[in-house]
Amino acid sequence: MNRLRAALPLFLLLLAGIVLFASGSLDQLTPHQLVRHQHELHAQIAAHPWLSRLAYIGLLTLTVSTGIPGTIVVTLAGGFAFGVIDGTVSSSIGLTLGSLVLYLASRYAFGAGKRRPPPLIARLHQGFERHPVSYTLFLRFLPVVPFGGVTVALAWLRCPLWLFLGASWLGGTITLFFESSVGAGIGDVLGRGASNSFSTAMLMHREILLPLGALALLALLPLLIERFTRRRRSIPKAD
C-alpha cells in the first residue's frame, strides 16, 4: 500500500500526459495551425501580454512534468508567438518548473533509492557516482535524449536538488534558445511575405536554417567529445 501511495503522484502525471497527448490539443500548436491563426494569436498576445505568457508557461510546465513527447512543439510555438528572447525566457521558466515537478514525483515514487533500477539507469549509475556534476550536465546537454527520461533517471540516481535544477536550467535553456529561434524565424519569414504558408521550403531561409544547424551540432557534440577522449586515451604516454 505504501508503494502504491508513493507512486500515485508520478502515475497521475503520466496519466495526465497520456490524456493531453491523446486529446490532440498539441496539434493546435503545429506550424501549420500557427500560421493559419497567426493574426488572432498575436492580437490576443497584444491585448493580454502577461496573461498570455503565464498561460504559455503553465502549458509548458504541464507538458514537461508529464514527460510526454511534444515539448518541442510547444517551445517552437513559444518562439513563434513571443520571439526569441521572450520565448526563451518563458520556456526556460516552464521547463524548469515542469522538470522540478516530475523530479519530485519520481524521487518520491522511488523512495530511498534501494529498489533495483532499470538496466539503462543502472548503467548510468557508475558514471554518475564518479563524476556527478559533469555527468548531470552531460545528460542535460544531450538534445537527442528525451528530457523527461533524463529527469526520471536523475531522480532515481538521487541527484542533489541544487545540481538537478542548475543543470536543467542551463542545459535546457541553451537548447530552448535555438528552438525558440526556429519558431521566431518562421514568424519572421511569414512577416516579410517571403511565404504565404508553412512548407519545407521555409527551412532554407537563414532565420530558420542557422538555429536548426546549431541544434544538429548540439546533437553531434557528445559523439565528438567521446571520439576526442577515446583518441586521447589511445595515445601512448611517453616514459
Could you characterize what this model shows?
The protein is mostly helical. It has one domain. It contains eleven helices and no strands. The chain has helices spanning about 1-25, 30-35, 40-45, 50-65, 70-80, 85-110, 120-130, 130-140, 145-155, 160-190, 205-235. α3 packs across α4, α4 (about 50-65) packs parallel to α6 and α8 runs parallel beside α10 (about 160-190). The N and C termini lie far apart (about 60 Å). The mean pLDDT is about 75.
Task: List the keywords.
239 residues, mainly alpha, 78% helix, 0% strand
* Average of the residue pLDDT scores: 77
Q: How many structural domains does the protein architecture include? A: 1
Shape: globular
Strand segment count: 0
Low-pLDDT ranges: none
Portion in strands: under 5%
Helix content: over 70%
User: Cα-atom Rg, whole angstroms?
Assistant: 20 Å
Main pleated-sheet profile: none
Number of helical segments with 4 or more residues: 11
- Distance N to C terminus: 62 Å
What oligomeric state do the depicted chains represent? Answer: single chain
Give the SSE string: HHHHHHHHHHH
Structural class call reads mainly alpha
Topology readout:
Blueprint: H1 2-23, H2 31-36, H3 38-47, H4 49-66, H5 71-82, H6 84-110, H7 119-130, H8 132-140, H9 147-156, H10 161-191, H11 206-234
